Amino acid sequence: MVSPENVERQILEFLEYKGNDRRPVQVAFYGGNFLGLEEDYIERLLNVSTKFVKNKEIDAIRFSTRPDTIDRDRIEIIKNYPVTTVEIGAQSMDDRVLAIAKRGHSASDTQRAVILLKDRHYQIGLQMMVGLPEEDEAGSLSTAYRIGELEPDFVRIYPAIVLKNSLLARWYENETYRPWSLERSIAHVKTLYLFFKKKNIPVIRMGLQASEYLDSGAAVLAGPYHPAFGHLVHSEIFLDMATAILEKEKVLHDKITLNVHPHSISKMRGMKNSNVEILKKRFQLQSLKIVPDPSLGEDRLAVSP
Hints:
- By secondary structure, the chain is α/β, with parallel strands linked by helices.
- The chain has helices at about 5-15, 40-55, 70-80, 95-100, 105-120, 135-150, 165-175, 180-200, 210-215, 230-250, 265-270, 275-280; strands at about 25-30, 60-65, 85-90, 125-130, 155-160, 160-165, 205, 220, 255-260, 285-290, 300-305.
- Strands 1-2-3-4-5-7 form a 6-stranded parallel beta sheet.
């Protein structure tokens, strides 16, 4: 259990190297069930964080929590603190999948939580997980539809991975659970990302945050973990876009230039230039240049005349 003193120490450490031109800064309590903690402990953590908000050193506080810990009494605890954002670990909106995964909450808990938070004007994020036991693409897409109906401010999408010494690890070892492959996960998360984009709901993360703990191989037993999972999804989207454009253009020459926003060059190129090589082979191109064009949106591309 992290102590309030440790929280203060970490905030001070961060503030020492925070640049003046950085975006707004928030203290975030992640990786646990914040509103499931003891009331006194919640208040102690919020008190030490609020001190920095009052001093204008940070802008706000955010946390993640389970949907079944969000009720009127718990919201009363946080209402007088500068908490602006609450993320809910919904994971699925299918009660059968939630029960099999032993989540201990229902889809209706998530719905009630969102209504309570919206009534109090908090920014709301919903987290969903892809590839849980007994879930397929149709079930996952149904979860996305139900999340979309709740109109959260943003979404995070995580593929389920098997961590060592977990319940999933036991199921994996006795062959009652098989995680999705990386390729399957990327293809489906791409579909989900495009769905939420059409609904104007930002997807602020796809895949687990890379860390030394995960990247070392000491934690992950199996499953679609990749430190650049989100980048792989975006690269697939750009590959699809480029393919559609080149097919529509009915390319009659073997030298093509694609224009993209400077921030999107690596997404268009793909990991280790994989998209470039795929397109060159598919359309029998001698060369394919990717040229930065700041006038384009970050999710757009165009063929040079």
